[in-house]
Amino acid sequence: MEDAEAVVPGRPWRLGPRATRVFDLVFAAALVLPAFPLVVLIGTTVEPLAFSLLQTVPLFWRRGHPVAVFAFVAGASVLQAATYDMPTWGQVGFPAALYALARFGSARAGWVGLFVGLCGAATASWVWTSAQFAQYPPGLEYIDYDLGLDDLSPYFFSIAAIVLAAWALGTQGRIRRAYEASLVERGRRLAVEAEQRAVLAAAQERTRIAREMHDVVAHGLSVVIVQADGARYAAEKDPAVAVRTLETVAAVGRDALTEMRRLLGLLRGSDDPALAPQPGLTDLPSLVTEHDRVELDLPDPLPEVPDGVALTVFRLVQESLTNVRKHAGPSARATVGLRSAAGALEVEVVDDGHGAAAAGTSGLGLLGMRERVEVHDGTLDVGPAPGGGWAVRARIPT
After folding, report:
1. What is the CATH classification number for the domain harbouring 325?
2. Per-residue pLDDT of the chain (398 residues; tens, 9 = 90+)
3. Bridge partners (DSSP) listed for residue 336
4. What is the 3-state secondary structure (H, E, C) of 312-369?
5. Does residue 308 sit in the same domain as residue 178?
6. What are the transmembrane regions (predicted)?
7. Are 62 and 68 in contact (CB under 8 A)?
8. In-domain check, residue 213
9. Are 127 and 78 in contact (CB under 8 A)?
10. Alpha-carbon dihedral of residues 299, 301, 307, 312, nearest 10 degrees?
11. Of the residues 139, 162, 192, the one at which a domain ends
12. Closest CA to 296 of 284, 307, 281, 304
């Protein structure tokens, strides 16, 4: 789980809920309060104060209701343009409301806000410029002066730049927040997927160990039983044979116990270097010495194959010889052959026993053999051999 947790990106630092509310309160208050002293200093009527409050007070709720706040502030700006032809302090509320709309609202709402802001920039430029020219005394030669682009452009571009900046900053903030959220969600999904992969890997490892346990126990016990029966019959006629047979039983039992300890070490997660290594091709002769009437045909030198392929071949031969001893009959003979050809390793175990009568071997043993071979993209053919007996043939790419 440490690797799974490592892929989860840390959330970016942000204000907490309480700090966010305090920040919104302070920011809105910073825009509302200056309206009172400015009206007193300028000495104008109450209209600028009223419009300033209408355009700034709603900013207290801009984060939770960005669309409604922008609509209210924009409506107050339109009302001001229609009734009061001079700028007021409250104009600072419009870019703040537009930023909140682009930041906390949807992308479509942000585009609508930008369009309204540019229209407002054009309207404000016309109204304020016309008001300035209307204030000149009558009778001057420029009293009938027609407004042109040169007169409107400074106002329009200045206001439009503020509108664009507010919209761009809000949009960038919304995009960044969405990007950060997607990264956090992706990290969460990766963590879940990593945990699921770990669970699947553990299940596959348990299945592999179960196959190993089956092979070790079935092989070891079958050899011990056969050798013990032989020793019991031989003890009556030739005690020396019984002694050698019992030595074989003891050796097989010790080997099986060693492998059992290795597998139990895997289950416990032990890293003990003294555990026995995985058996391979070089251990095949030990299987033949444990079985009477078995011939082994191996190439010299043995081919170099991956450890997983070597273990699969060893377990395949081990399980096949166990089935020969259990199902082929007491007098059956078997041949184990190994060949390397065309980038693959071919293994064959053929006996001359009961043949089709051994069909009862299609249990966990054959299922385990097939699974082992298919893991390496190999093929397994199990069935009656020509002329009687039973054959197990596998081809494993190397």
Report:
1. 3.30.565.10
2. 344 444 444 555 666 677 777 777 887 778 777 777 766 665 556 677 777 788 888 888 888 889 999 999 888 888 887 777 677 777 788 888 899 999 988 889 989 989 998 888 888 777 767 655 555 555 444 445 455 566 677 778 888 898 899 999 999 988 988 888 888 888 888 888 888 887 777 677 667 666 766 666 666 666 677 667 666 666 667 677 667 777 777 777 767 666 666 666 656 554 444 445 677 888 888 877 766 678 888 888 888 888 778 888 888 888 888 888 777 777 788 889 998 887 888 999 988 876 555 444 445 667 778 878 887 888 998 888 887 788 899 998 87
3. 296, 349
4. HHHHHHHHHHHHHHHHHCCCCCEEEEEEEECCEEEEEEEECCCHHHHHHHCCHHHHHH
5. no
6. 22-46, 66-84, 109-128, 152-170
7. no
8. no
9. no
10. 10
11. 192
12. 284
CA atoms within 13 A on the CB side of 16: 2
Question: Would you state the structure tokens that stand for residue 75, as one six-digit string?
Answer: 């409506």
Structural tokens at position 230: 């032989």
Which residue bears the tokens 């302070």?
Answer: 26
Length of the chain: 398
Task: Identify the domain containing residue 358 by its residue range.
Answer: 280-398
Q: How far apart are CA 259 and CA 352, in angstroms?
A: 30
390-397 and 344-351: which strand pairing? antiparallel
